[in-house]
Design brief:
Blueprint lengths: L7 E5 L4 H12 L3 E6 L2 H14 L6 E4 L7 H14 L5 E4 L15 H26 L6 E5 L12 H21 L6 E6 L6 H6 L15 H7 L11 E3 H4 L5
Parallel strand pairs: 1-2, 1-4, 2-3, 4-5, 5-6, 6-7
Helix pairs in contact: 1-2, 3-4, 4-5
């Protein structure tokens, strides 16, 4: 039996890039995928793909814009999941937007708020709201998504970089508060340079063929959900380092 057979995993940003690749990869291992994204047409297309991969799976679509949610919306998301599953085994917080590349002195408040809502506030609220159904399952996982610009301040990366700094702290606080009282594991993963739409926007002159493929990332996510990660004492992982330790 696959490690993820009949596991219920919520993935944000599930219709594009890493999120989409993860959804199909986990579904191929027998997992039930909760797809969360903002484009209904893309969600339906991704859902149909999952059904073809795993016809016996119980997949779910949640269409919402993470830039504009209040507490009641997050409660509705949880209610929707409660109505379809008894427990949640994984929460992969993958959704993020770049905003704009500009000096902070030129950054407008509307874009700032949108980036922080999607990249930070939604991750806080989803982790907080999903905790009761995550801790209802054994050895659940929350995986935050980091970036190289979370390591040090870098000019012109604006709200995106700020959000990744903040998510690093958010994951550390959740981990410190929860891992001593639950068998829940909380990881923060920097996938490094990967061929995504966001990457091509940030680096328009870069040849995506020079980057690793999204398939190359999948062993890392498999490890996060495996028994091998049960005893992990670290929570922050970079692709370039983690991939060397996986058999």
């Amino acid at each position: 039996m696959n490690t993820l057979e009949n596991k219920n995993i919520l993935i944000t940003g599930a219709t594009r890039g890493i999120g989409n690749k993860l959804a199909t990869h986990f579904a191929s291992q027998g997992a039930n995928i909760v797809l969360l994204a903002s484009n209904e047409e893309s969600l339906n297309k991704t859902y149909d793909g999952l059904v073809s991969i795993n016809p016996k799976g119980k997949h779910l679509i949640i269409c919402c814009d993470l830039s504009n949610l209040d507490t009641s919306h997050y409660d509705e998301i949880k209610l929707n999941i409660d109505e379809n599953y008894d427990e949640l085994h994984g929460l992969v917080l993958n959704a993020a937007i770049l905003g704009k590349m500009s000096a902070l002195s030129d950054y407008d408040l509307e874009t700032w708020n949108k980036v922080l809502n999607v990249n930070l506030t939604s991750q806080f609220m989803l982790a907080k709201t999903m905790l009761p159904i995550l801790t209802n399952s054994q050895k659940a996982r929350i995986i935050f998504t980091s970036s190289g610009v979370a390591d040090c301040g870098k000019a012109f990366w604006g709200a995106y970089s700020v959000s990744k700094f903040a998510v690093k702290g958010l994951a550390e606080i959740f981990r410190d508060e929860l891992e001593n009282i639950h068998d829940l594991k909380i990881f923060n993963f920097d996938p490094g340079a990967s061929p995504t739409d966001m990457r091509s926007t940030a680096y328009p002159g870069e040849d995506p063929n020079d980057l690793k493929s999204l398939d190359d990332l999948m062993p890392c996510y498999d490890w996060f959900f495996s028994k091998d990660s049960d005893a992990a004492t670290e929570h922050y992982f970079r692709y370039s380092e983690l991939i060397k330790t996986i058999p």
